[in-house]
Design a protein that fits this description.
The protein is of the alpha/beta class. Helices cover 31% and strands 24% of the residues. The chain folds into three domains: 184 residues, Class I glutamine amidotransferase (GATase) domain (Rossmann fold); 184 residues, Rossmann fold; 96 residues, 2-Layer Sandwich (GMP Synthetase, Chain A, domain 3).
Length: 508
């Protein structure tokens, strides 16, 4: 299998680079910039992509790499910080730009393998405060903008290319074409990586590994664990036990939907643990979002492991881990945006033969494609991104049973109306938020002082950036009327018109 190395220098779009490479039927592997050169030499990569990053190459504390990597004879493409790093490694000069470039910028290019089939002028996505003020010896400048004298440079003798912009994001008009040209014209890839045989190959490998032993999977009801359950069920049937911990923070009726789906669709043992009251007690008085996330994650596995201890034959432990969960990022000590609980740590008193992660090589969109082929219902496979702590981080402040019920009802009405009109297919994600704010209202000539609910809907291709969705006013009005009329305890509905950035999609 042909592989491209994505060497991670801590940028926000690095997983997107790998996804774009895979979209072109070439397998991409992400490794941090701390990876030893010997490991890279041993993996027979067809090409290497240096990613972006927030640092300055002339800062000694910034991520760097041995210059030897440019002498391996492997084609290299540098993106943003990776572009500047190549210049620095080869003796060029990187300086603070007189004018920083952010957002959509027009670039003018010359003929090049990298730009074959691309117009002389096109729009690209820039995000930099430094720039290459002097290209290194042996490199030709083949792309410029009004404020960036070296937007693209190349050394065709060594197959080294560098772009100051981000071709991987959808805002770059011909970005995917540029990546395709790098893969097929520069790296000479054949595009032999396809998803079609993933299921058969994985099922065969699972049967061989598991044999006649048992497998236990923690089923959250999300896309990843559900598809992992589907693969394992096809491989070993009743040898699989799925433990579903319902912490009471899912959307309306989702717990019942998950149980019905997996008990009717797959041949497996299904155990549902209802523990809503336990979670509410643990969360009582807690308002900090990070603390809520940690409590929900910790208590989830406490309940889960307690159920596992009841199993006599534990065999293997399975997780719905996907590729992004496995990546050791090059971010180093970068600021934390939110805490994830994707990798599970085993208690000392519980022993399994091994951990099985059948989706560990796939991105989310690839996992969905596998789920479709397995026959998992569309509602589950294409379930919108849902935070691990569930509604716990869509309720700002303390979580109570009353707030959970209010949010579940309001969110359900929002989803029903979007589905009824078919508008949901135009949205990447939409949901309701309970901000913990009350406001004055009037209902039936009576003064009310009830909860306010926020509606959030975005459009995006990659979730790295997102625009607020321009939902028709009459549709928003219908949602608002239904919520205020049908959900006792809510008297005001507002719509969030903030894009990402500066906001994130979720609230906590």
């Amino acid at each position: 299998m042909e592989k491209i190395l994505v060497l991670d220098f801590g940028g926000q779009y690095n997983q997107l680079i790998a996804r774009r490479v895979r979209d072109n039927n070439v397998y991409a592997e992400i490794l941090p910039y701390t990876t030893p050169i010997e490991k890279i030499k041993a993996n027979d990569y067809k090409g290497i992509i240096f990613t972006g990053g927030p640092n300055s190459v002339y800062d000694e504390s910034s991520p760097h790499y041995t210059k030897e990597i440019l002498n391996l004879g492997i084609p290299v493409l540098g993106i943003c910080y990776g572009c500047q790093l190549i210049a620095w490694m080869r003796g060029g000069r990187v300086s603070t730009a007189p004018v920083s470039e952010y957002g959509k910028i027009e670039v003018t290019i010359k003929d090049s393998l990298l730009f074959k089939g691309i117009p002389e002028k096109s729009t690209v996505w820039m995000s930099h405060t430094d720039y290459i003020s002097e290209a290194p010896t042996g490199f030709e400048i083949i792309g410029t903008t009004n404020d960036c004298p070296c937007a693209v440079m190349e050394n065709t003798a060594e197959n080294i290319y560098a772009v100051q912009f981000h071709p991987e994001v959808t805002h770059s008009e011909y970005g995917n074409k540029m990546l395709h040209n790098f893969l097929y014209l520069v790296c000479k890839c054949s595009g032999d990586w396809v998803m079609d045989n993933f299921i058969d190959k994985t099922v065969e490998e699972l049967r061989s590994k598991i044999g006649d032993k048992k497998v236990i999977l923690g089923l959250s009801g999300g896309v990843d664990s559900s598809v992992a359950a589907g693969l394992l069920s096809r491989a070993v049937g009743k040898q699989l036990t799925c433990v579903f911990v319902d912490q009471g923070l899912m959307r309306k009726d989702e717990g019942d939907f998950v149980e019905k789906t997996f008990t009717s669709l797959f041949d497996m043992n299904f155990v549902r643990v209802n523990c809503q009251e336990h979670f509410l007690n643990e969360l009582q008085g807690v308002t900090d979002p990070e603390e809520k996330r940690k409590i929900i994650g910790t208590e989830f596995y406490k309940v889960f492991w307690e159920e596992i201890r009841k199993q006599s034959d534990k065999g293997f432990f399975a997780q719905g881990t996907i590729y992004p969960d496995c990546i050791e990022s090059g971010k180093g000590d970068a600021d934390k945006i939110k805490t994830h609980h994707n990798k599970v740590e085993m208690p000392e008193d519980i022993e399994f033969l091994d951990v099985i992660e059948p989706l560990a090589s796939l991105f989310k969109d690839e996992v969905r494609r596998v789920g479709e082929k397995l026959g998992i219902p569309k509602e589950l496979v294409w379930r919108q991104p849902f935070p691990g702590p569930g509604l716990g981080v869509r309720i700002i402040g303390e979580i109570t049973a009353e707030k959970v019920a209010l949010l579940q009802q309001a969110d359900a009405i929002f989803r029903e109306e979007m589905a009824k009109t078919g508008y949901e297919s135009e949205l990447a994600q939409f949901f309701a938020v309970l901000p913990g704010v009350k406001s004055v209202g009037v209902m039936g000539d009576h003064r009310t002082y009830e909860h306010l609910v926020i509606l959030r809907a975005v459009t995006t291709d990659d979730f790295m950036t997102a625009d607020w969705a321009k939902i028709p006013y009459d549709l928003l009005a219908r949602v608002s009327n239904r919520i205020t009329n049908e959900v006792k305890g809510i008297n005001r509905v507002v719509y969030d018109i903030t894009s990402k950035p500066p906001a994130t999609v979720e609230y906590e």
